[in-house]
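Q: What structure does this chain adopt?
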Amino acid sequence: MNTVQPIRDPQKIKLVKQNLRKRNSRDWFLFNMGINTGLRISDLLPLRVGDVRNQTHIIIKEKKTGKAKRFPINYSLKELIESYTFDMEERDFLFPSNKTDLPIQRGQAYKILNQAAAEAGLSEIGTHTMRKTFGYFYYKQTKDVAMLQKIFGHSAPSITLRYIGIEQEQMDESLFNFSL
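A:
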């Protein structure tokens, strides 16, 4: 079974951003929003400009859980939002389809991310990679698994650590030099 992984290497993240930026600003912005908020793709895609521009928080009802979620927009994300949406209307979708008046679909987002990741030499990538990458780096910076568990809405710290690939990483490291 192939499990989608976080992107653990900051240089690879930079490369994926560059690959997406070459294509278009929508795809680049989607990746940036995903890795900086940890929101699920199903919660990102329906967002409109008015949901994020000049806001202090992204306020949504999570599609998967039905729970209300309030996520702060930090300074760097605020700058990204302002520059990306400067010529857009409040009612516009943040990630509009080129073919319809609707946002891109999950399958399209998957193709976009997978192609940019493959060009960066990455595999085991999907739309959840953005959420897992957010979680991985949040944990690496803070070591606060309890807070990350709350952010993700997981029922136990062990689930969160497995989800972001820390559990596997720790097992790999412990077994790498082990031999009998």
